[in-house]
Amino acid sequence: MITVDFTLLPVGPGDRVLDLGCGGGRHAFEIYRRGADIVAFDQNENDLADVAAMFAAMRAEGEAPAGAEADTVKGDALDMPFDDASFDRIVAAEIFEHLPHDTAAMAELYRVLRPGGIAAVTVPSWLPERVCWALSEDYHTVEGGHIRIYTRAELEAKLKATGFQIGPHHHAHALHSPYWWIKCAVGTGNDTHPLVAAYHRMLVWDILKAPRLTRITERVLNPVIGKSVVVYLRKPPGGPAAGTGAGDGV
């Protein structure tokens, strides 16, 4: 399930890309398929082991262009082990809502992105997230869970204060919002509830088949109940020269 629009964050051979807080690796795998050099970064060793295994499987099956590199790195988003201006592109998907010091992590993102580079930041959208918090305390009090709800204006203001130029935005995954509302209503751990199980089957079917009806429905609903909001950013040009890559997006 891809949240980032790669027409707005173009990646390809010659780009070095960071997937900050990669989790299960959904964006890292797509970036690798597109031929960019990808670093999947997270503090969860189990997730990183699974991502590394998938990178190896993709190499073995020829799913990534020859010459593309894929690595995993364990570390803290507040103190990343990378030099300044190390990356041409960065994806930071659903990470800042987990961090007490979100602005410190934004400053690190800014530091490791090269001047003129672009990034995509995604967080849960305000309305769907507010409904989840209202329906379930467990949803947001679990260890490692969400500690804040962003409005897009707040997110963009923090990123702008960090130094970024703010680009376009969009919402994604509207069909996933009702799934989480149902889970919050019946218990976030109750995956066997008939409504939860039925809706989950529909989502899996939609992801695998991408039928025209659900794709159109989601596009229509995304601006209203899209589960995630995605903001595209640029670090102002200047400093070290930009490398070759897939071209400009934002």
Major beta sheet, strand line-up? 3-2-1-4-5-7-6
Q: What sort of overall outline do the alpha carbons produce when their principal axes are compared?
A: globular
* Tally of separate helices: 9
- Care to count the β-strands? 7
Topology-level CATH name of the domain at 16-125 and 138-173 and 227-234? Rossmann fold
Mean pLDDT: 94
CATH C-level label of the domain at 16-125 and 138-173 and 227-234: Alpha Beta
- Indicate the radius of gyration in whole angstroms: 18 Å
N-end to C-end Cα span: 22 Å
The helix-and-strand class reads alpha/beta
**In percent, how helical is the residue content?**
40-55%
Largest sheet: 7 strands, mixed
What's the CATH H-level superfamily name of the domain at 16-125 and 138-173 and 227-234?
A: Vaccinia Virus protein VP39
| Range of strand content | 15-25%
Q: Provide the low-confidence segments as ranges.
A: 239-245
Q: What series of H and E elements makes up the topology?
A: EHEHEEHEHHHEHHHE
- So, CATH architecture of the domain at 16-125 and 138-173 and 227-234? 3-Layer(aba) Sandwich
